[in-house]
Specification:
- The longest helix is centred in the N-terminal third of the chain and has 19 residues.
- The relative contact order is 0.14.
- The chain is built from 4 helices and 16 strands.
- Helix content is 9%, strand content 55%.
- It has a 16-stranded antiparallel barrel with strand order 1-2-3-4-5-6-7-8-9-10-11-12-13-14-15-16.
- By secondary structure, the chain is mainly beta.
- The chain has a single domain, classed as Porin.
């Protein structure tokens, strides 16, 4: 094996370990692992350029994240995370947000307890850290159909308690009960939101032609009884009801992922169903999915392709039914610590074509 491909193999092994471990919920992010110190920290910056067809160019500070945590004892961990962003044409620009804060009580591998503010267990892509996702943005379905996604300043987090663990080294489960209104909001008499996620590792690093093969399958479900939830509108006839939704909110997710040598694959299907308390005739559903593939053609260079669809209301046929394809290239200067990403997104409406394709470039670097 040449020195270049040996370097690629070592890099891919490191990348694979981070990608597979990304699912495991409220654990320390990779930069904070490998130490038992009571206090350790890390942080990273993402700078982004966005060009939209027939739109203005954006030069944004996409994210500045500070992550701190440590061990209070051999079995108790703490973690906190803050975010600042600006220049993204977003209502959350220009403010500092407290995103996460939790305590983990590691009783044993099969059963551990987490208390605090964090992501409810739902969705593979949503649980992949921002600095590890292979496309610059997550999929439309992930953004729209993950619990707490509609609340702009909750950043997909909520307050609650979660039990998780690993059973026989191949099955990982997470089950939590949450407030249901999302982080950075007052308690509002909503919920509780109940979310459960399970992942089965079919096999891990099985020898195969082209490199070791790892395959995982999983599913998640969530439910809450909503009261005055501010959901995004899918259509004019439901706009008022969705802005002040009251009723049953159900979610379902299915996922599959594989890592094979220098190639990776991931797919998810997400579904949400709303049952209106006062007007059952308005009951509706939304669903979406994505398929993503990536390959390292050379050391440090990664090519990514992604196709996705999102339909906020299958009973209607309008311009909010979106098909989207992304073609990207990533250059890992120092693994995920210093990385440059570029992507072109082709957007299509189900009813009529529209011109809002976008081109993005993002620089990511860690400061510690």
């Amino acid at each position: 094996m040449s020195a270049g491909w040996a370097c690629c193999a070592r890099f891919w092994t490191l990348y694979l370990c981070c990608a597979v471990s990304a699912l495991w919920g409220q654990f320390f992010p990779p930069p904070l692992r490998g130490s038992t110190s009571p206090l350790r920290w890390s942080g990273y910056v993402q700078l982004r350029y966005t060009n939209v067809d027939n739109g203005e160019d954006l030069y944004g500070l996409r994210r500045v994240k500070l992550m701190v945590g440590g061990n209070l004892s051999p079995r108790v961990q703490w973690y906190a995370q803050a975010l600042y962003k600006d220049g993204n044409a977003s209502p959350t620009d220009g403010r500092v947000y407290f995103q996460e804060g939790w305590l983990r009580f590691a009783f044993r591998k099969e059963a551990q307890l987490v208390i605090g503010q964090f992501k409810p267990p739902f969705g593979r892509e949503r649980f992949t850290p921002d600095f590890q996702i292979l496309t610059i943005d997550r999929s439309l379905a992930t953004d729209a159909l993950t619990p707490d996604g509609p609340y702009i300043d909750s950043f997909y987090r909520d307050r609650g308690v979660q039990l998780d663990g690993e059973w026989r080294s191949r099955v990982r489960y997470m089950a939590g009960i949450f407030d249901g209104r999302g982080a950075n909001h007052q308690f509002h008499g909503i919920g509780p939101l109940v979310a459960v996620q399970t992942v089965y590792e079919v096999f891990k690093e099985r020898p195969a032609r082209g490199g070791p093969l790892t395959l995982q399958l999983g599913g998640a479900t969530a439910f809450r009884w909503g009261k005055d939830l501010p959901f995004r509108s899918c259509c004019a006839r439901l706009e008022q009801e969705l802005r002040h939704f009251s009723g049953a909110d159900r979610r379902l997710g299915l996922e599959a992922s594989a890592e094979w040598g220098r190639v990776s694959f991931r797919a998810e299907y997400l579904w949400a169903g709303l049952s209106f308390k006062a007007t059952p005739a308005l009951d509706s559903a939304a669903h979406g999915w994505y398929v993503q593939g990536a390959r390292f053609p050379r050391p440090k260079w990664q090519a990514v392709c992604k196709h996705e669809r999102f339909d906020p209301n299958p009973a209607l046929h309008n311009d909010k039914d979106i098909r989207q394809s992304t073609i990207g290239i990533n250059y890992y200067v120092r693994q995920n610590r210093t990385k440059v990403m570029a992507g072109y997104v082709i957007r299509q409406g189900a009813v009529r074509p529209f011109s809002n394709n976008l081109f993005q470039v993002q620089l990511q670097f860690f400061v510690h």
